[in-house]
Amino acid sequence: MAFSQTQFETLIEKINDKIEKLTKDLVTFGNKINGAVDHWYVPGPVAKAVVAAANKLIEFVNWVLTKIGHLLEGVVAPVILFIDANSWKAKGIHGDATTASSSTQKFNLQAPKEWKGEGADAYTNAVFPQSGAAAQVATNANSIADILLTAAVAGVAFYGAIAAFLIQFIPAMAAAIAAGATVVGAVPAAIAALGEGVAGWLVIAGAVTTLLGVLGDQAKAMADLKSNANDNSAFPKGHWPVGTA
Fold first, then answer.
1. Cβ atoms of 64 and 197 closer than 8 Å
2. Cα distance between residue 197 and residue 174, in whole Å
3. Contact 65, 22 (CB under 8 A)
4. How far, in Å, CA of 17 to CA of 26, rounded?
5. Rounded mean pLDDT of 180-207?
6. Closest listed residue to residue 72, CA positions, set 3, 196, 158
7. pLDDT tens by residue, 10-57
8. Where are the domains of the chain?
9. Distance CA 118, CA 55 (A)
10. Helix H segments across 39-129?
11. Residue 117 phi, psi (nearest 5)
12. Distance CA 232, CA 57 (A)
């Protein structure tokens, strides 16, 4: 699993740019249609049909823009999840716990090498069991990091689907704008753009379902991990740490 914060931020910038363009295109399309039908030689029934088709497309695009706006409210989540994953992994909690596990193993303890007798034995027997406890912390930290990273990557894929939709839909809107000035071609172009938009939105709906499935799996994994965290069998006397005295 790979996550690049820079690439993700670039992706979101692209989405925002496409939304801005689509918003402007929608205004241009409406102006084109109004200008095209506002002529004496355009029959009333024809003008009514063209405007009705255009309004359907405008209504749909506005609905899409509103929905995407709602979806973008969670746009910071993948970055936060990635940052949190890093804090649990590598030199964060996992790294510190791994170091603690290694340094408290009996053969790594330094004091008993210079210190002999009952006190040294008591010290060794009190400290080295902490190694297993620290190892359990390290394992849990690594699992938490993987869960968070999986969720972050799923978020990137989801917003990638939104970007792909916008990239594919904008040319259809451009065609509708171009046809808007012809009156005759406005209705087919609007219908074609609407069909392209609906098909693309179904892909986003599928991406939503996929994302929810991934997040549901990670939530279950977190619940299982919580259960594992409550298992104190690796901890000396059922809790950690304990004093060495």
1. yes
2. 13
3. yes
4. 14
5. 78
6. 158
7. 999 999 999 999 899 888 888 888 877 777 776 778 778 878 888 888
8. 5-238
9. 89
10. 44-71, 77-88, 93-103, 111-114, 118-127
11. 115, -170
12. 61
**221 CB-near residues (< 8 Å, 6+ apart):** 143, 147
Question: Can you tell me the distance from the alpha carbon of 239 to that of 130, in angstroms, rounded to the nearest whole number?
Answer: 10
Residue type (1 letter), 32: K
Q: What is the pTM of this model?
A: 0.77
Write out the two tokens for 213: 């499935």
Quick: pLDDT tens for 64-98.
889 888 888 888 888 888 888 888 876 777 778 77
**H-only helix segments in 107-185:** 111-114, 118-127, 130-180
127-176 pLDDT, tens digit each: 777 777 788 888 888 888 888 888 888 989 999 999 998 988 888 888 88
What letter represents residue 75's amino acid? V
Report residue 45 as tokens.
């029934």
What does the block give as tokens for 85?
């994953």
